[in-house]
Amino acid sequence: MAARNSVVARAYDFRMATFDGADGTRLAYHQAGEGRPLICLPGGPMQASAYLGDVGGLSAHRSLVLLDLRGTGESAVPADPASYRCDRLVDDVEALRVHLGLDRMDLLGHSAGAALALLYAARHLDRVGRLALINPTPRAVGLEISDLDRRQVAELRQGEPWFPDAFAALERIWSGDGTAAEWMAIAPFTYGRWDAVAQGHLAREASQTNADAAAVYYSAGALEPEAIRTSLASLRAPVLLVAGEYDVALPPKCAAEYAGLFRQAELAVQPGGGHFLWLDDPEWLVQTLAEFLH
Fold first, then answer.
1. Helix axis angle, 163-174 relative to 147-154, nearest 10°?
2. pLDDT of residue 178
3. Average pLDDT, stretch 88-111?
4. Are 14 and 30 in contact (CB under 8 A)?
5. How would you class 155 by CB atoms within 10 Å of its CB: exposed for 0-12, middle for 13-18, buried for 19 or more?
6. Cα–Cα distance between 128 and 165 in angstroms, integer?
7. In this structure, are residues 132 and 107 in contact, taking their beta carbons and an 8 Å threshold?
8. pLDDT tens-digit profile of 222-279?
9. How remote is the C-alpha of 59 from its chain's centroid?
């Protein structure tokens, strides 16, 4: 794996700009790098795009356009809180495409942001050039992941000093007795390495996230997995699904099933990677994405 210091020390030369969303809400995006734009949709859900950094150094290969979803980061709070629902955010992504003057655009979505990317692709099949999904949420396509699937991935970490306490908390969650304390205790499973970089990343999460908006993002009616699957089966754009070997949210076995939903998709699994692959091995991730997005 690449040295962690490179993740911390690298300075991001982002330029911020704004545009009007579908309903006139003022939205912000942050741009770094040169070349063809790559629209990056953050997860969380509803976390400011700053947590993505420059996706491990991908700005050396593409012009990254990181969208702050409405009510997050530098984007304005909308008049209608119901507009935080992820299917309604598709119109903001389309407004960004029009603002940038792109006939077709390459999209990258991380985690919950991948749900938004998939919803956009399903609704605008001919507007997507290439689609990169990093640790995508399985709920967008109704992919069921069993506790056994997650357990098999979690047990790969049993040599780590934090494992006994974190695994005990995970078992309490599986039994239905999980509290906020248990959910915090399993945080190490989210990262390929539970060190100062990962802990700092986690510590910033709450201040970067609009919790009220997050509660609306997946609210009733936002996702119709069968309809999404049906539409995406017609998607001609190449798809890259990138997963982490240690990601309990989307175990590699399940990621392979996910990739099989598309007519032309590649699967790449980062060795030792968690849910935030640009922290665990930025060089591997950038090389993998750059080869796909060439």
1. 180
2. 79
3. 98
4. yes
5. exposed
6. 44
7. yes
8. 999 999 999 999 999 999 999 999 999 999 999 999 999 999 999 999 999 999 999 9
9. 17
Check residue 149 and report its DSSP letter: H
Return d(Cα 53, Cα 60) in angstroms, integer.
13
Read off the pLDDT of residues 6-64 as tens digits, 9 standing for 90 and up: 444 345 689 999 999 989 999 999 999 999 999 999 999 999 999 999 999 999 999 99
Angle at 247 between CA 180 and CA 138, to 5 degrees: 85
Beta-carbon contacts of 101 under 8 Å, excluding residues fewer than 6 positions away, are none
Q: What is the residue-averaged pLDDT of the chain?
A: 95
Tally the residues of the chain: 294
Q: What is the CA radius of gyration of the chain?
A: 18
- Which has the closest alpha carbon to 115: 44, 192, 63? 44
Q: Do residues 285 and 59 make contact, with C-beta atoms less than 8 angstroms apart?
A: no
Percent of the chain with pLDDT over 70: 96
**CB-count exposure of residue 40 (10 Å: 0-12, 13-18, 19+):** buried
Given a contact cutoff of 8 angstroms between Cβ atoms, the answer to whether 243 and 127 are in contact is no
Q: Which residue has the tokens 């969380």?
A: 44
Q: What is the 3-state secondary structure (H, E, C) of 60-95?
A: HCCEEEEEECCCCCCCCCCCCHHHHCHHHHHHHHHH
Instruction: Return the pLDDT at 84.
Output: 98
- Residue 10 DSSP SS3: coil
* CA neighbours closer than 13 Å in the CB half-sphere of residue 29: 23
- For residues 96-120, one letter each, b for 16 or more C-beta atoms within 10 angstroms of the residue's C-beta and e for the rest, the string is bbebbebeebbbbbbbbbbbbbbbb
For tokens 């802990």, name the residue. Answer: 199
